[in-house]
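Recap from last week: sequence in, structure out.
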Amino acid sequence: MISPKSVTGATLIGLIAPFMWGASVSLVRTISENFGIAQGQCLLYIVAATALFFLIGFPKFDRIPWQYKTIGLATANLSSITFCLSLYFSNGGTQTMEVGMVNYLWPTLTIVFAILFNGQKARWWIAPGALLSFCGIYWILGNGHIAVDAFIEHIKINPISYFLALMAAVTWAGFSSMTRAWSKGENMSTVIFIFDIIIFGAFWAMGVGGSPVITGFGILSVILGGLAMGVAYASWTHGMSYGNITVLAIASYFTPVLSCLFASVWIGAELTAAFWQGVALVVTGSLICWHATRSPSIKHS
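Predicted structure tokens:
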């Protein structure tokens, strides 16, 4: 029997996360539309935290280094907040998916951070791989045009949303790196989500987000979104603590594809040929990054 804390077992558990994240962009968007950003996300994280409590419980705080309890926790919460706000401020299903694709730079950034901060070894083609992923985002936001002015004009339509999505990607990649370095095998996901409840609950108390429009579809989105996010956080953090980081990274690279397929059904996003071409560039660049870390002569993490 495979142990959950063996490299293989932890990697298999971690592989659950990309499938859950594939639905998160569309679900978070639907929740924000039905309940407002504060109320919706507070309810989302209540469901997620409850699921996490029964899945993993609370960590042993005395084993966790102070860096992870302070810097790591703050970084994770910042990632959650910026991700949700980036989707809330997006306009329509198509722009929501553009914003989601900016956030999906995090797999490439996770490997880059692993090289910079966790001692992960890599070959020279990590650089063109990372560049190709960024080119994919450029192609999407430029609507298939190479000209820089087309890219800039598209960003100007909603700069705050795209900036928040990029910040969410950077902070999540940073948190993944911190988990590898500082977690000591302890999973803080339940605590992270409780802090998210407090943060969005405070926004709710201040009247942020307006009056909710409660529908059956919205309630279903809260339940599915909370379960998906809770399971994703728990499995990913466990995988990053004990599993093979490169295998998890390659699986996460296909999250954008799953997300786009789900969005086309759930929120009716109309995705152009240029969008799918950009997705292909992001995934291909991420795969190159992964391959750069798995040369036979290199020891895996």
